[in-house]
Amino acid sequence: MVSLVTGGCGFIGSHMVDKLLAENHEVRVIDNWTTGRPQNLNHHKNNGHLTVYHMDIRNKEEIEEIFNDVDYVFHFAALADIVPSIQQPWDYYSSNVLGTYNVVECARKSNIKKFVYAASSSCYGIPDEYPTKEIAPIRPQYPYALTKRLGEETVLHWGQVYGLPVITLRLFNVYGTRSRTSGTYGAVFGVFLAQKIAGKPFTVVGDGEQTRDFTYVTDIANAFYTAAVSNITQETFNVGSHGTYSINKLCKLLGGEIVHIPKRPGEPDCTYADTSKIEQMLGWKAKVSFEEGVQKVLDNIEYWHDAPVWTPDTIGIATKDWFKYLGK
Ligand code: UDP
Q1: In this structure, which residue's CA is closest to atom 10 in ligand 1?
Q2: What distances in angstroms separate CA 322 from CA 85, 93, 123, 274, one per listed residue?
Q3: By CB count within 10 A, which of 117, 279, 300, 303 is most buried?
């Protein structure tokens, strides 16, 4: 089997590559190395079953030939994070929407077995119900969420109109080893781990009682694999851990001092996936407990050594536009 992983040098993508190589697939990666890091695949350096193409999904002519004879496409390449998506919406639109168009078009022309898209649970905004089902209203709150949603719609539309065998997976708060360390203020794990290494307090938003459905990255890779090899198509599934955990609990597990920073507008007090659909239709369920996952991350904490160390002051500056545009 030949699999193509866009964004395969990134956090989730590199774990997907691990999974596919373990399943004896020939793996091709397309990554432009803006947020993905080639070092994330260093452990496969001498593996002849992996080829990494340093290319950009925004350039359709360039990536087209990589799709020849591909069986499965896993589409992770995208820009993440809220604040830069507010400041540079075109970057997000071009990568996450037009980039997805390019990838799905190339896949259509090469007669693939399955296309699996990494969709975001941020499409639910602040939901009315927890756990949240796939049929909940779609309410993107910022350009990142919107562009991931438009990418998802594009993929499903290609399934509907052209019969491309597609599945979209809505991911809930993915964490784990190799989670991003890049410059922008983003996902809580990278922020807290860098603070822990530097001996600085964890910057807890609000009272820290808000909860997130933290889902371990190898469980995510297993969900993508299960979706790819299943005979189900044209479906959307939540992928979550089957639980929801407070930031205070995370701080306790990581161990360290705390400092509080202001609650941010537009963010939910809880994320919690209803995973009954994926359990029933695909037979997938998360296996890694929160305690276990956090321990795995702590065992690899050196990875975050060069990550920026955020303080309440620098976070205040970095999130200015968040409060300006989402706080209305
Ligand atoms: N969070 C925090 N301190 C930080 C960054 C995030 O307490 O410096 C909290 C945030 O309030 C949220 C959770 O961690 O409840 C997850 O935030 P993240 O940005 O990782 O994901 P999202 O809010 O998009 O679910």
Answers
A1: 205
A2: 10, 18, 17, 28
A3: 117
Which tokens in the block code for residue 289?
A: 């407990």
Give how far Cα 81 sits from Cα of 91, 202, 319, Å.
12, 19, 11
End-to-end CA gap in the chain: 50
- The model's pTM: 0.98
Residues 16 and 25 sit within 8 Å (Cβ to Cβ): no
In a 3-state reduction of DSSP, which class is residue 75?
strand
3 state SS of 4: strand
Residue 58: predicted pLDDT: 98
Nearest-CA residue for ligand 1 atom 6 is: 188
Q: Is 258 helix (H, G, I), strand (E, B) or coil?
A: strand
pLDDT per position as a tens digit, 31-68: 999 999 999 999 999 999 999 999 999 999 999 999 99
Ligand 1 — pocket residues by CB below 6 A?
173, 187-188, 191, 203-205, 210, 212, 247, 267, 271
